[in-house]
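Sequence in, structure out. Go.
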Amino acid sequence: MSLTKRSWAEPFKIKMVELLKMTTPEQREKAIKEAGHNTFLLKSEDVYIDLLTDSGTSAMSDQQWSGLMLGDEAYAGSKNFYTLEKAVKKFYGYKHLIPTHQGRGAENILSQVMIKKGDIVPGNMYFTTTRLHQELAGGTFVDVIIDEAHDSENLHPFKGNIDLNKLQALIKKHGAKKIPYVCVAVTVNLAGGQPVSMQNLKELRALTQEHGIKIMLDMTRIAENAYFIQQHEKGYSKKSIAAIVKEICSYTDGATFSGKKDALVNIGGFLAVNDQEIFEEASNLVVVYEGLHTYGGLAGRDMEAMAIGIEESVQDEHMKARIGQVLYLGEKMQEAEIPIVLPIGGHGIFIDAKRFLPHLKQDQFPAQTLAAALYVDSGVRTMERGIVSAGRNAKTGDHYYPKLELVRLTIPRRVYTQAHMDVIAESVERVYQDRKKIRGLKMVYEPKYLRFFQARFSKL
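Output:
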């Protein structure tokens, strides 16, 4: 027997388990109807395998749990703040730290500090909360991601890249003074967890320096992006994840961070910057919106766990297993000929709902429909990333119609086994076989902001 390819296994062992509730299809049909066919409105106890998000749902290590016992809950000057600050400087290289309760708290402060009414904020595809904070601050988001990102079948290895020609045209049209910063996400969530190349970041840095424009990073899944650079970009195969992460940050002026993803904690985030003036203004605003500048809405124990998680997140073996599980599920889907976003991204599998349910028009919410159908079939909770998430144009009131209409199967870190991945793949395949029977939805309740969280639907 020739061993040309060796199996990999998780670099951890299970110390504690959480028992799951098993439900029947009838119970799940009742639950999804009561939830208005919105998986966000399901009770978690009615969910078997929860792939709604990887945000705050990962399993912490024994070191992180022990770190909770080191919490210094002083109102001011908590020692855990300084531990976190040290970790941020060591692994990311930024000079100044402003802790926040989670990533969107950092997005809010960044937007309030840097965006003026009428400003243009270019970015590599929108993210829901990021764009809303930019709009509430008076800015307008403009997508400058490469065209390949909007094609689920395109195999470009770095579909998160910024199109420098689009950005250059935007600068020429509006002027550099109208652009407070370029917002770069690593990886790009709504493109299917797609990475940005280091070469693209270097070229972006050169262009923005020429025009005096800052780069602000959404570094929520930066370690995952570093893994793709290590695996697919020339000159990085022998570099560590930690080294690549720090190099990514070196081409930027600051970052927002949700510790609930890469850093493996249940709550927490931060804004990190190099500019002293921005830091001082942000430190003042964090007191208004989050809490004192040395806790930012977090308990000391949460900052300690996040500092430990940052170090664990950049370990090569951890990232190999994390991405490996995503690849395993994606390859199972490909074997079943399920239409998914390719290449397989970092934090989950994204099903192309337009190709999965071609008989449904986009305003019949195919991704929302598919997410509900998957839950009824197996108790697997996923989420919509399409027309519902895209929202409406604030001026016209019309739906945004994104080219990508996706269902995201987001895999929490260190939580599920390969057997769970098999159950998920089999459920998707079963629903795919019966796809022609699936009817669309109509929206019966729509909140003012971020409607995908709370909107309700009924069957057509």
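Check: The chain has two domains: 25-54+316-459, 62-313. The two ends are 55 Å apart (CA to CA).
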